[in-house]
Structure formats: C-alpha cells, structure tokens
Amino acid sequence: MKVICLLLFFFVCGSLAHHCKNTTGYNTRFSLSAYNTYFPGKNGMEAMSFFECGSINIDFKQKQMAVSFHIIISGHPTIDGSLFAFGQNNTMYVTMNNGTACKKFPNSYPFPSGWPNVTNWGKTKIGQTSVDILDIPASPNGPMTNQTVFYDHKHCACLSTIIRNADISNAGVSTMLFFNFENKPNPDGFNLPSSCLNSDEHVDILLNRKRGDPTAEEQFQQSKALHYILQAFQ
C-alpha cells in the first residue's frame, strides 16, 4: 500500500534548542508538491509526481497518530482519506469514501524514538522569519532521497522541507509547507470515526468486494507525505 508520506521530521537533534526537544508530539496542516521524487508505491520506491495536502497529529508519548490526506495525481481519481495509528496495540485504521469505509491493518509506521542526525548548514530567512537549515542525509535503509528542513527555533516549528532524489542522474524534487504548526499533540484528535468501530464487518459491503479480494485493500490508499514526515525520526 502506498504510504503517505511526506511529513517531516521532527528532527533536529543536537541543533535543536533545549525547549524544543521537550516536545511530546506535534500537530500541523501541510501541503506537498512532488515532481519525479521517490515515494513508497506498490512495487517499492517509485518516482512520482503529485500534489497532497492534509493534516497530521502525533503523540510520541502515547504512540498514537491521526492523519488526513487529499492526493491529486494526473490521470487518476482524487484520493481522500484518513489514517489512525496506535503503537501500543500495533494497529492502524484507514478510512476512505468520506469516512464511510474503514479498514483495519497492522501498523506499518514505527513511532520515532529519538532525534536523527542532521547537519546544520546555518541560517536563512523565509520571508522575514529566521530559520535554521537542517540537512537530513539519505538513509541506507530508506529511500534514495535527501531532505532539507527549514526550522524556526524561536517557535519550535517546521516551516518547510525540500526532498530531493539523491541520484542526480534522475532529478526529482518535492517541497512541503507546514501551516499552523504547534509543537504539541492535540489530545482530542485521535478518536476513531464510527465506521472503524466494526470495520471488518462493514468494509466489504461498502466497497462491493468479496472478503479477501486484494483489490479491496488497494482502495485504502495512505498518505504519501507521511513517509517523509516520520523519516527524520529515528
């Protein structure tokens, strides 16, 4: 299944201000514009071009996460959905069809346990906001991409990240923006919709599929941005 990916990085290891490191999570809205950039697909990492927007709410301490996403890919139907992941019982729920269809899966998103290694390339300004330039190198166990994060230490907030293919012979770049970033989780944002309470019994009826048909699971797409939002954590 496709991973939502984009989002970030909460990173910022030794270069983070002390008060920023004490966070137990965060919540934010985001938008992602991707051109020929590697994201998880049906056959592993695939170069993709698309637009995604949505929100993410994650609680590191309680190991729970809620994501909403809206994905536009040329030549394909628009994808709208949400994802709820719970680390304590290793389950996640993905909703589609405006929340009327819900499917339960094993959780495929490990929750960050620490800050990744980053290189601080100094400071710049986005508009008139001073930000640190933090570089997250490609991981040998992850996609062949590099991330640069623009981080506002004063407000402990991510403003933007740029994702680029590490292989310069196959150029690709994505830009993600964050809106209304809060350096804490929203405790009221993890409640499952009613369609997920009996998801195994209702999903096949809603999708008009037979139980066990793999095409039923394929309809439950996941955020692509989420992959990169979490990648920066280790």
- CATH T-level topology: outer membrane lipoprotein receptor (LolB), chain A
Rg calc:
18 Å
What spatial order of strands do you see in the largest sheet?
A: 7-6-5-4-3-2-12-11-10-9-8
Count of alpha/pi helices = 4
Keywords: Signal
Pfam families: Ependymin_amoebozoa (PF25544)
Signal peptide: 1-17
Structural notes for this entry:
- It is a single chain.
- The chain is mainly beta and 234 residues long.
- The protein has 4 helices and 12 strands.
- It has an 11-stranded antiparallel sheet.
- The two termini are 22 Å apart.
- Keywords: Signal.
- Residues 1-17 form the signal peptide.
Helix/strand layout:
Blueprint: E1 5-6, H1 18-21, E2 25-41, E3 44-59, E4 64-72, E5 79-86, E6 91-96, E7 101-106, E8 119-126, E9 129-136, E10 145-152, E11 157-165, E12 173-182, H2 199-207, H3 214-218, H4 226-231
Antiparallel strand pairs: 2-3, 2-12, 3-4, 4-5, 5-6, 6-7, 8-9, 9-10, 10-11, 11-12
Signal peptide: 1-17
InterPro entries: DDB_G0292248
Keywords: Signal
